[in-house]
Amino acid sequence: MAADVYHQGERAAQRRAGLLDQGAFSSRAVRAEIPEVARKFLLAQPMLVLGAADDEGRMWATVLTGRPGFLRAEDDRALTIDARPAPDDPLHDRLTGPAQVGMLAIEPGRHRRMRMNGRAAPTGSGLRVDLDQVYSNCPKYIQKRQPEWSAATAAPPKHSSALTPDQQKWIAGADTFFIATADLDGDADASHRGGAPGFVEVVSPTVLRWPDYVGNAMFNTLGNLEVQPRAGLLFCDWSTGAVLHLTGTARTDWDPAHAAAVPGAERLVEFTATEVVEIAGAVPLRWSAPVPSRFNPPVT
After folding, report:
1. Is residue 99 very low, low, confident or very high in pLDDT (cuts 50, 70, 90)?
2. Alpha-carbon distance 2 to 13, whole Å?
3. How many CB atoms lie within 10 A of CB 92?
4. What's the predicted TM-score (pTM) here?
5. pLDDT of 105-154, one tens digit each?
6. What is the distance between the alpha carbons of residues 65 and 60, in angstroms, rounded to a whole number?
7. Distance from chain centroid for Cα 64
8. Are the CB atoms for 250 and 269 separated by under 8 Å?
9. What are phi and psi of 155, to 5 degrees?
10. What is d(CA 219, CA 91) in angstroms, rounded to the nearest whole number?
11. Hey, how many other C-beta atoms are within 10 angstroms of the C-beta on 266?
């Protein structure tokens, strides 16, 4: 089954980690249809993380929000989203037409997340995504939070080629971010990364580094990076609704000596930003103070 589910990059990452057998076991969770329990889960969610490439091939991650019910499984192979990226969002123009997308529905309050990918097309009010893969994912490093709605007026975006000191401080204090990647065929993926504040190291105004902790051995993100280094990151300010989009390239550092220097790290990932977009007040959701995951490794 693993040969059918995983592409060559994912199998290469599993091989390098010595986890081919575990990856094959985890592949049993991947399906093309949305199960009934997942339909109910999607109906209850107010947020969806979406990853895709823009018209220039750069990867971005963004977030779509709506009152529960804005995500609906119209049938067992298609998802309807009653939202689209705002005009200043890096993926707005791309999603006015067909696009390959990766998606993550995440419920921090109950430590649940669901991954999907497929082919999106615009509708009158949002998007319809014909799905290729659907599966639940490891919830280990999700910080528990509860959502609240707040009036939001997005400010004009701030573009730069490097992180400002305030943006560096934001990232250095983050306990959660999202990453978008794609394989050589353009099939996109959106994933969650979590840890104790400080788990993302700001190496320089353009370089970030974080540990890759033990997971379910699917290696969807690292497998994509094995064959295609383009990546997009999304950091959300859960108290103000601001978002920070980064696009650039990422690589996995497989040197065990480097990982050994970071508590809990199985390996490290280094990201180099080429463009940064900050939008204040972009998201009408606010989230409560976190209850940290008990699985978060310590940060030195």
Report:
1. very high
2. 13
3. 14
4. 0.96
5. 999 999 899 999 999 999 988 999 999 999 988 789 999 999 999 987 89
6. 17
7. 12
8. yes
9. -85, 160
10. 25
11. 16
C-beta separation of 158 from 257 below 8 A: no
Q: Which residue has the tokens 């995951």?
A: 293
139, 105 Cβ separation under 8 angstroms: no
Strands of 90-242 (E only): list them.
99-107, 112-122, 127-136, 147-149, 158-160, 176-182, 188-194, 201-204, 207-212, 230-236
Check residues 14 and 28 and name the one with the higher pLDDT: 14
Q: How large is the C-alpha radius of gyration of the chain?
A: 18
Does an H or E element contain 12, and which?
Answer: helix 8-17
Per the listing, tokens 């701030």 go with: 158
Report how far residue 268's alpha carbon sits from residue 250's, in angstroms, rounded to the nearest whole number: 11
Closest to 66 (Cα-Cα) out of 81, 77, 51: 81
Helices and strands of the chain, counted as H and E runs: 7, 17
**Side-chain-facing half-sphere of 26: CA atoms under 13 Å:** 19
